[in-house]
Amino acid sequence: VKEGEAIEHPWVSKIIASAQRKVETYHFDVRKQLLEFDDVANDQRKVVYSQRAELMEAQDISETIKRIREDVVDKLVAQYIPEESIEEQWDVPGLQQLLASEFLLHIPLVELLHQKSEMDSEAVKQAILDEVLRVYKEKEEQVGEDALRVFEKSVMLQTLDNHWKEHLSMMDHLRHSVFLSGYAQKDPKQEYKRESFVLFSNMLDDVKYDVIKVLSTVQVEGAEEVEAAEKERQRQAAQQQMYYHHAEDPNTADENSNSEEENHTPYRRDQKVGRNAPCPCGSGKKYKQCCGKL
């Protein structure tokens, strides 16, 4: 067969058609799987964006902070004083030390437990909440109710944004590693959904924990510092809004890909070029690996 002459035979055509069907089926399955993975991330994105929009519109999130505070205390107490456990299994000193180191709350839980023999986990929760509220009220009297409401919103938004970006990185890592579960006879898609749900739940818990930690440990001297913090939050929020807008815009990727295509336009010519010959576009690659790539 001469160079450049087409090879025509029913067997060859049948083999090529069969190979093409297999390739197309493979790429279709890959695209379908990626879309299913994207659906999981999109559901989580809708939840976060919805919560963030509500925070941006709200003027007073003190009730939200109150619920978050109660959730955090419930989880902490359940961690050190498990449900349906006897008193010998409680780690009250550990809980007392954590409250002091993480939240700057110095509550003599061990002494209270010795003084009140009938004290249970609910009483411990209430003692912690009472002390948290007392300290928080002192800060509110110091800086003013309006200033503290602004600061609460600032902390909530900034914490949510930071954890969401970290979560996206973890989701990307999970997407690349979840296929290894196939070696354990597990469905990668189901494992991805399960693991992503766990990551998302942990992220929400971390947001709550960090918000209460910051609000408990922050030392505010006056309304001026709160106003300065709000200005800084607005600056960061403006930058973050650009990030969220970029993430929501489905045309961004298309624009990037179009610009790449414009930067490397295939070289057209009338004269045939051998597949192993240097590409006429000047890239330095072989023609079959550049403009002649199938």
Describe the 3D structure.
There is one protein chain. Helix 2 packs antiparallel against helix 5. The two termini are 22 Å apart. It is built from nine helices and no strands. The protein is 72% helix and 0% strand. With 294 residues, it is mostly helical.
* Structural class by helix and strand composition: mainly alpha
* Rg, nearest Å: 30 Å
Count the strands?
A: 0
N→C terminal distance:
22 Å
| Helix percentage | over 70%
Mean pLDDT: 80
pLDDT < 50 runs, ≥5 residues: 252-270
Describe the sheet with the most strands.
Answer: none
Backbone shape = elongated
| Residue share in β-strands | under 5%
Number of helices: 9
Helices and strands, in N-to-C order?
A: HHHHHHHHH
Give the arrangement of secondary structure elements.
Elements lengths: L9 H48 L4 H19 L11 H12 L5 H7 L5 H23 L1 H33 L10 H30 L5 H26 L2 H13 L31
Annotation keywords:
single chain, 294 residues, mainly alpha, 72% helix, 0% strand
Could you provide a short overview of the structure?
Helices cover 72% and strands 0% of the residues.
